[in-house]
Structures are given as C-alpha cells and as structure tokens.
User: Which sequence fits this backbone?
C-alpha cells in the first residue's frame, strides 16, 4: 500500500533520538572518566602521591622503592588523558569541516542541541561530490565493460542468442485497468487502519482483507512421529540416555 513518508518518519525519528541519547550518555561517561584521570594525574604529580597510590606508613628510605611505580602510573594515565584530548580535537575538526565552529559553551551545555542541528543538516544536504564522482565512474566502467563484451561476441552468435523459442518466453504481464492506489477498497477503512487510535473490537486486516478466525484444536503429532518404528527408536534413545 503506497504510504506517505510521514507514516515512516515517526518510528525512524524515535530510533534516531534513542541513538542520540545513547551517544550523549557515552560522551558524558567519557568526560567523567577524563575528569577522574586528570584528578588522578594531579595527585600523582603532587607531594602526596603515596597516599594516592594507597601506600602509607613507610619511611623516606622506602619511599624511593615506589618511585618507579609512580613514574609508570604517570605515563599510563597521561597516555589516557592524551587520547581523550585527541578525541576531542577530532570532534572539533569534524564539526569545523561541516562549517560549524562550536563555542566553549556549546561544547558543554548545548551539545545535544548542536547534534540535532547537524543531523537535520545531514538529512537535507546533498551527497558529497566524491561519492557522485565515484558513482559516475562506476557507471562508466560498467557501460564500457558491457560494450566491450557485446563487441567481442560474433554477430552470428549474437543473432543466435537473440532467437528464443516461443514457448520459453514468459507471458506478458497483464496491465491493470486502473492504477493501484491502495489495498483497501474504501477510504474510511484505510483511515481507520492507519489511525493513531486503536480499538480492541476492530477487525484485523491484512492487505486490506479481514483475517479469518482460526479454528482451535488440540495439538497432534504428525503421523511420521507416531509410527511403531519411530516409537521403538525413541524408547531406545531414552534408555541409552538413562544409562
């Protein structure tokens, strides 16, 4: 049934919002981890780094034994902080490539609103020129290979290939008298089926026709499973499993 785009827009929009929410949650979690790592790095670089590492009750002489562990943790935490910084710079570069330069306030508070605008821009903007050029090149390559293959076939063989027996030809598709517009015979039935309000007593339709009621009956095994040979084989398998 040919439906308008508005029928499919709402479910897809709901899924897009859900995906956007999950993406924002992941970003907030990543930023929280970044803040925790920066705080840990400041503690390791400070004078009270032993307490940050969970070491207490040692003398100044024993303090040197933990210096290499401190340097190791500093390197690891600094590498993670640098990764977060590179990820943030990559996001800024992608946004600047789209023509929008986010401000400091937009990065923190209005991040979700900016993502909505970018999503709408992506939906309305035309495909990039590189994709169009690649598609055009692919089309030209296919046409060139098609023309080369047809030119390499001898004319007699091509004429023989064109002759097909009449009984092998598929029958022509009958053209409908009227253009197909809907599965429903009456407009009000279609409007009720596509409406937002659903009633429990309404008739269930499939392709515009009412679905018949199914007859309730007890379940029975197929005859192939109730033959004497199959019953003996099943009993034999159960005896083997019990052993």
Assistant:
């Amino acid at each position: 049934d040919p439906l308008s785009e508005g029928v499919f827009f709402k479910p897809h929009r709901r899924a897009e919002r859900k995906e956007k929410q999950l993406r924002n949650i992941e970003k907030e979690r990543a930023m929280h981890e970044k803040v925790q790592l920066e705080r840990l790095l400041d503690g390791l670089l400070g004078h009270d780094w032993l307490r940050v590492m969970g070491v207490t009750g040692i003398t100044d002489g024993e303090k040197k034994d933990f210096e290499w562990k401190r340097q190791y943790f500093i390197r690891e935490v600094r590498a993670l902080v640098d990764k977060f910084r590179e990820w943030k710079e990559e996001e800024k570069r992608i946004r600047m490539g789209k023509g929008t330069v986010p401000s400091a306030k937009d990065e923190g508070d209005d991040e979700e609103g900016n993502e909505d605008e970018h999503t709408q821009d992506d939906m309305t903007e035309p495909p990039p020129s590189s994709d169009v050029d690649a598609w055009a090149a692919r089309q030209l390559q296919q046409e060139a290979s098609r023309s080369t293959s047809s030119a390499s076939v001898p004319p007699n063989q091509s004429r023989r290939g064109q002759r097909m027996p009449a009984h092998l030809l598929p029958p022509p598709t009958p053209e409908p008298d009227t253009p197909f517009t809907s599965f429903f015979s009456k407009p009000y039935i279609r409007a009720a089926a596509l409406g937002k309000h659903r009633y429990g007593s309404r008739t269930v339709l499939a392709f515009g026709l009412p679905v018949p009621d199914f007859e309730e009956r007890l379940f029975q095994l197929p005859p192939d499973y109730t033959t004497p040979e199959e019953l003996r084989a099943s009993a034999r398998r159960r005896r083997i499993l019990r052993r």
Remarks:
- DSSP finds ten helices and two strands in the chain.
